Amino acid sequence: MATPAPELDEEPAMAPAAKPAPSPAPSPKEESQSCASEPVTHILDPKEIHHIRDLFTAFDANANGKICREEVIKVFPKRDGETNKPLIVDTPHGKIVFDADGDEWINWDEWLAYFAGVKHDRLKGDPSAWKKFMAWIELNVPMSPRQIYHMSEIFKMYDANKDEFLEAEEVERMKSSEPRAKKKFEANENKISNFFEPDNPNLLSLKGLLRWCAERRNVRGFWDVENLINDLWGYKVAALDQAELEALERVFKKLAHEVVIQSPAPDTAPDGAPAEAGSTAAGPPKTMFSVSLLLLGLPDDTATDSESGGRMLGDYTKAQLLQRACHIKLTEGQAVLGGHIARWDLIQARPCTQGKGKRCCGPDAGCMIQ
């Protein structure tokens, strides 16, 4: 912004200003490039950006950060009366063109800006049109690398003999791990049993499981598969990609400390008989690992003492840390989570000086943090 000129006691006489020559109109390409850089993505919340990023990575087969324009526009829906795909949308900041620089490739910034423009455009006429647009795109979207990674790891978890096939009983254990997951696996429109090996109906390969997931996503949508992944893991971590999960694992291993929890008195005696009334004999102690929220610099959202199961308040188990990271990504954004992980990577926790064998629990606990 230009600095205003100082005020004068007298206004100087000024010659009439010459009429400026008209500026040449910008070409559509120049207009789209200038407008696409305007702030338009604010209309998208972190969950929507997560979905849009997943779509981008699903089409970015070689993970080089760009996708072919002609291939990807085939999945865009047309509204009634439209003869062409909606490659230009109007926003409060001007026009946004799908391929802003005209190089026949779509990068992430162009992809995100275009979806933001589409949301603004769709919401003008019909509040539900944006959701319909996203649901329609899902009809032709392949599985993303992140979802493939999660389903592959879940497959390995149930493949007890590591022969790269799930036998019928292993599939049944996977199906029965959570009632909602079982309902998805047994849905009439695409039962998992239809994806077993053609020459052996008792075996399910990873390829068959991924084909089932891909068809389910095309029919039921992106969030259906996200919820399935969460159900099969047993906690909400589906939004985290492989790099984030590995980074959080590294952070937890470095900063976690050992906690010994005294188990409550058992309901039965060792011989199986009911425990004596009024018995206060505690069960065997259990060892677990957790990391201090004070050390991580996160607000404490842990349970009350009666709900904590004996865990130290203000501490997270690994599962809780992963769930908190997933929540941060979906509510505050990937960049915020990345900032947390980068900061945690810099923490070097030394053994507690109090002689308890624990890692330091924070700068106010008398321990050294570098």
Structural summary, described in words:
This protein is mainly α and 370 residues long. Helices cover 42% and strands 9% of the residues. The protein is built from 14 helices and nine strands. A three-stranded antiparallel sheet has the order 7-8-9. The chain has a two-stranded antiparallel sheet with strand order 1-4.
Number of helices, where a helix is a run of at least 4 consecutive DSSP H or I residues: 14
Q: Describe the main β-sheet briefly.
A: 3 strands, antiparallel
Order of helices and strands: HHEHEEEHHHEHHEHHHEEHEHH
Rounded to the nearest angstrom, the distance between the terminal CA atoms is 42 Å
* Low-confidence segments: 1-38, 304-312, 353-370
Q: What's the pLDDT, averaged over the residues?
A: 77
Spatial strand arrangement across the major sheet: 7-8-9
How many strand elements?
Answer: 9
- Shape category: globular
Radius of gyration based on Cα positions: 28 Å
Structural class: mainly alpha
Measured by DSSP, the beta-strand proportion falls in 5-15%
Helix content: 40-55%
